[in-house]
Structure formats: structure tokens, C-alpha cells
Amino acid sequence: MELWRPDRVYFEADARNTVIGRRVRDYCIKNNVEMLETTSHNQVRNLPGENEKAKYAAAKKTLIVGIKRSMKLEVCKPSADYQFSLMTNCPGSCEYCYLFTTQGKKPYVRVYGNLEELYDTIDKYIEKKLPHTTMFEAASTGDPLGVEHITGALKETIEHFGRLKQGKLRVVTKYAAVDPLLDINHNKNTRFRFSINTNYVIKNFEHNVDNLWDRLKAAEKMALAGYPLGFLIAPIILHENWKGQYKEMLEALHNHIGQQQNSFITFELIQHRFTMNAKNIIEERFPNTKLEMDPEKRLKKWGKYGRVKYVYEKNQAQEAKDYLTGLIKQYFPNGHIQYFT
Ligand code: SF4
């Protein structure tokens, strides 16, 4: 479990003096990381690299500290009511990453300094929906635990939700560095989810994230710290011996957390999908990818904004759904499957 270290950090002028900006600056000084300036976190140019593959690798080692300008929160179905960003993108390099579709051209990692403004916005959204509880997703534009050792923003956000009565938070990660989050006042208002997968998927497609065992150990620690837990099995990939490997994965999960009293565990099941745009980017950045992306073998589906995505054929998707549902019921009788998509 190695913590990410950027090669260079760009600061927007307004972000330098925020709490996050100062923390990142201290991190850079301590770790001898180059500090640069940018006029906008949306337009960082001249990153090193002669081809797309090298440029992508350089961007994944670049951190930008900016100010989030828009405070309009987007709807986030099916996992929550709204989503907000503590950061955009992620130090990881998963070959199938859903961000290729939305962030394809700007794969550098961005974090935002204006947390207080964000918390005010969240509080207002909650107020509008009273007396109902409002659920927020903090990880739909990146993996905030991947930069937590640099910003500390996730800890503060979990503590903010810990003080709220009608607001709940959901986070998902492929990282395991949860120690700074264990002894804080989360008040059970944050459901902490881990994205898990078979060893085949992790070994072949998930780079610069933590391995399954570290994620499972981290999940165990979070369960002991009293957090409500959840697991995303995503993307479900029907590789050779997928049944055997998904069974092993759920067995291992059961061995780590099955005995916890805290057993109202949620599961979200997401089958592998791709867009043609993402496929082109993936093939440029990972020319030897083993990811199966043949549109002829897939079912065409229309998503948000008229985007076409390719999912498994109906009978294959149904088989995966039935099989995984059966395993989850067997190993986690109190587990709750929220959706299969
Ligand atoms: Fe993308 Fe998540 Fe992998 Fe980061 S950890 S590269 S956000 S899939």
C-alpha cells in the first residue's frame, strides 16, 4: 500500500490560501514536490509527454489545487440524491475507468480549496428537502481517499456530515489508507463503500490502486470503527472462470467482515460498459489492453445525454445478476442489493 506522490502541483492563485491549499503546499515542501501556478484548474497545458500514452502518464502524476466555481449539485441516480466533488479524477489508472467518458481530455487530478462554500451548499440542499433525508455521493468524479493523505478533505467532510441530522454521505474507494478516518465523529452518517473485484480484473485492469487484500483489511477496520459499509462490485467482467473468481472474492469478503455485528451491508452491482469514445481513448492509452470491447458482442443502450453505451447481452447480464445475487444471499443474509445495472 503505497501512497500517491505527485511529480508536480499547480495552484490557482485563489486556492493557495485556503486550508486545503496550505496543506498541499506543506505536503509539497515536505516531500520536495515541484510547485507551479495556473490561471485555471480547467486549463493546464504543456504537461510533458510525446504521445497520448506518455501525456496520460504525466497527467496522472499532476495535481491541481483550484476553486470549484459552480456550486450547483448534480442529481446522482441510482446511488444518491446529489453528488458533489471534493476532487476530480484520481491517481489510479484503471483501464476501464468511467471517467474516460467524461474527463477523457483532462486526466490530471484536481482538488478544490473552497470546502466551506461547499458545506454551505450541501446544507442548503438538505434544508430544501426537509423533513426528508438527503443522500449525497462524494466519489462520482474521482476517488477522494486516493489524495486524502495530501488534503485531509474527506475527513473534514465526514465530520461535517457527522454533525448533520438529515444529511447522509456515501463514498466509494479502491484505496485502503483509511487510518485517518477511524477515530473521527462520523455518527454513522457516512456509508463507506469499497469497490472490489476478482483477482483477474484487479491484476489486468486496475493500476496504481490498492490490491483486494488491502481493501478488505481496510473494510474490516472501517466496520470496527462503526461505519455503515457497502461494496460495489464493479465493473462485473465475464472473463474466463468469472464464476469461480467472484465466488472466491465474496468468500474472502465474508472472512473479513462477515462476523461483524454491523451487518446491514449494501451491495451495488455494475456490469462492464463502454462508449465508443472511451474505447478509442483506452486503446490509445493502453495499446495492449485485454479489455474486451467488441460492440458486436454487446447490447447497445442509450444513456444520459443520448450517449450510446455497450453492455452485456441480456442473457449474459441476467446470468451475472442471478449468480452474484445468489452468492451475496448465501454469504451475507442481511446484505442489501441496491441495484444491478
Ligand atoms: Fe477511475 Fe476509480 Fe480507477 Fe480512479 S479508482 S482510475 S476513479 S475506476
TrEMBL record:
<dbReference type="InterPro" id="IPR049539">
    <property type="entry name" value="SPL"/>
</dbReference>
<dbReference type="InterPro" id="IPR034559">
    <property type="entry name" value="SPL_Clostridia"/>
</dbReference>
<dbReference type="GO" id="GO:0003913">
    <property type="term" value="F:DNA photolyase activity"/>
</dbReference>
<protein>
    <submittedName>
        <fullName>Spore photoproduct lyase</fullName>
        <ecNumber>4.1.99.14</ecNumber>
    </submittedName>
</protein>
<dbReference type="Pfam" id="PF20903">
    <property type="entry name" value="SPL"/>
</dbReference>
<dbReference type="InterPro" id="IPR058240">
    <property type="entry name" value="rSAM_sf"/>
</dbReference>
<keyword id="KW-0456">Lyase</keyword>
<dbReference type="InterPro" id="IPR023897">
    <property type="entry name" value="SPL_firmicutes"/>
</dbReference>
<dbReference type="InterPro" id="IPR007197">
    <property type="entry name" value="rSAM"/>
</dbReference>
<dbReference type="GO" id="GO:0042601">
    <property type="term" value="C:endospore-forming forespore"/>
</dbReference>
<dbReference type="GO" id="GO:0051539">
    <property type="term" value="F:4 iron, 4 sulfur cluster binding"/>
</dbReference>
<dbReference type="GO" id="GO:1904047">
    <property type="term" value="F:S-adenosyl-L-methionine binding"/>
</dbReference>
